[in-house]
Amino acid sequence: MCAPLMRCLVLASLIVFPAVSASAAGLVADLSEQRIQIDLGFTGKQVLLYGAIERGGKVVVVVQGPREPVTVRRKARVAGVWFNKTSATFGDAISFYQVMASAELDEWLPFALREHHQIGVEYLNFEPREKLGAAEKADFLTALIRNKQKLGHYGELEGRVSVLGGRLFRTEIFFPANVPTGTYTLEAFLVQDGKMVSAQKTPLYVSKSGIEAEVFNLAHRYPEIYGIIAIIVAVAAGLAANAGALRR
In this predicted model, what pLDDT tens digit does every residue of 24-77 receive, in sequence order? Predict the structure, then answer.
């Protein structure tokens, strides 16, 4: 999106929402769209978050997906065979997590603020359902974060928030094809002289549509029927492949 168009969008948001409280007056933000629909041809989506700030400062944006239970397993090898030895389940893990900032976080964002607002994967802290020691919990939490990063669901993109003229800011958030569905929260923070002076949350809704939605609903509402259909489709595919091989 070009800078003039973004300025128009920001000005429009300021006109539409003139009654901003004093505590939030330092920052106004909005999204180019507030809903992502996943269909069969979905390959990912890029959403623009844009806004305006007062009196300068630095901006950091935190994207959080819906919470979900995640089980992390640790494997062990016995007699040449790998099997699951121990596991830990985090009941309220964030399904999707991204951080974008206008500069390298370690240079300007105090440790206390990063820890309090969980800004950065190293500051995420989920509690396991099992009773674990501090070291074991840290190991499982590190493994959870590593697995999420491999999926493209966790990341930090420092320098990806552009501030134009000291007043207008923008950043583009990419949601991959395997993005989890649910309600997302995009929170923009304004930091001045090491202090968090303003923040604004904006919701984003990710849902399935078309045949993807029908299959998803069937699998979750009627798992027995979905299982039977899956078996029938698998058997039919196998018979078709076998028939094709015999013709050759």
Answer: 458 999 999 999 999 888 999 999 999 999 878 899 999 999 999 999 998 767
User: pTM value?
Assistant: 0.75
One-character DSSP codes across 86-148: EEEEEEEEES-EEEEESS-GGGTS-HHHHHHHT-SGGG----BSS---HHHHHHHHHHHHHHH
Segments making up each domain of the chain, as ranges = 3-209, 210-248
- Please state whether 44 falls in left (phi above 0), alpha (psi between -120 and 50) or beta: left
- CATH superfamily assigned to domain 3-209: Macroglobulin (MG2) domain (2.60.40.1930)
Question: For residue 80, which phi and psi values (nearest 5 degrees)?
Answer: 80, 5
Q: If you search the block for the tokens 């607002």, which residue do you land on?
A: 117
- Report the alpha-carbon distance of residue 230 to residue 240 in Å, rounded: 15
Six-digit token string for 72: 């992390």
- Count of other CB atoms within 10 angstroms of residue 230: 11
